Amino acid sequence: MDHTTPLSGRQHILRHGDYTAVVASVGASLRELRYAGRHLTRHYDADEIRPQYRGALLVPWPNRVVDGTYDFNGTTHQLSLTEPERGHALHGLLAWDEWQTVEHSEASVRLRATVVPQKGYPFRLSVEVQYSLDDDGLTTTVTSVNTGPDAAPYGVGPHPYLVAGDGPVDEWTLTLPADTVLEVTEDRLIPTSLAAVTGDFDFRSPTRIGTAFLDHAFTDVGYADDVATVSVTGADGNGAAVSFGRDCPWVQVHTGDLPGNPPESRGSIAVEPMTCPPDAFNSGTNLLVLAPGISHSVNWRIHALGK
Fold first, then answer.
1. What percent of the chain has pLDDT over 70?
2. Which of 53, 102, 142, 185 is 20–30 Å from 214 (CA)?
């Protein structure tokens, strides 16, 4: 890359039918996804530093490692605190790395990056992601291989923000087929206990979001033919959805609230299927352990609803 490369990295434009996607090489991020000209995800400009984790891949863990510390195979590890305001290690190690292009066609792109052994995570992973457009939307497939000498703790997920027309999310309808929510502390979002969804957490049938605040992980997801779908729609019936399989037993949902409530606050809703819950490096819940030479692959799909 040189001084002419956009701040978000190299741009990979994908097209198929009414779908158009743009993948930026910094963080292998989904910078933009449109259907018939309307946005399905909250986008940002090519020459803009990606706002927080919008559209990034979260690997080798999604969400938070509390205090950035965890024990694994008898050793205590201390990660860098990348969420200093709450004192946690947030969203893995590759979200701000430059991913290399492996191949790029009209409707598909494959990128690769390496998690190098480092303080707090002394393991080596080779990670590839493929974004592919077809009639059913945009499918993302992440495949990671442990190329190091030791077993490695592992989790993965995406960070797309769905939109259903102009905000705010208060006017949209959310469908979230999950029976259980992971409760967290108000100040640091530290997981505490599981609870049955009730009140502002119950979106098992299509429900207007209203003033509900969500920044929570949900589980006991309802699958139809081994696929779960979380969707958001506007008053006109148009919207977007994320579909995923049983290998993602958790989904984080965030109503996009920002400190100080600026105009862009609650303008989109994050829907993040995950292989494990927040702080899985400590709880061990659904934590994957990749032995040397072992690979893991998972996928999810973002697609349009309505016209």
1. 100
2. 142
* DSSP states along the chain: --TTS-TT--EEEEEETTEEEEEETBTTEEEEEEETTEESB----TTS---TTTT-EEBS--SEEETTEEEETTEEEE---SBTTTTEEESBS-TTSBPEEEEE-SSEEEEEEEE--BTTB---EEEEEEEEEETTEEEEEEEEEE-SSS-EEE--EE--EE--SSS-GGGSEEE--EEEEEEE-TTT--EEEEEE--GGG--SS-EE-TT---EEEEEEE--BTTEEEEEEE-TTS-EEEEEEETT--EEEEE----TT--TTTTSSEEEEEESS-TTHHHH-TT-EEE-TT-EEEEEEEEEEE--
Report the pLDDT averaged over residues 155-184: 96
pTM greater than the 0.70 cutoff: yes
pLDDT at 1 over 80: no
Mean of the per-residue pLDDT values for the chain? 97
**pLDDT score recorded for residue 307:** 87
Q: Which residue has 């409530």 as its token pair?
A: 261
Task: List the end-to-end C-alpha distance of the chain, in Å, as a whole number.
Answer: 39
C-beta separation of 297 from 141 below 8 A: yes
Look up tokens 């292009």; give the residue. Answer: 101
Whether 32 has a pLDDT exceeding 90, the answer reads yes
Count of beta carbons in the 10 Å neighbourhood of residue 11: 15
Q: Which two tokens stand for residue 202?
A: 């119950």
**pLDDT, average across residues 225-250:** 97
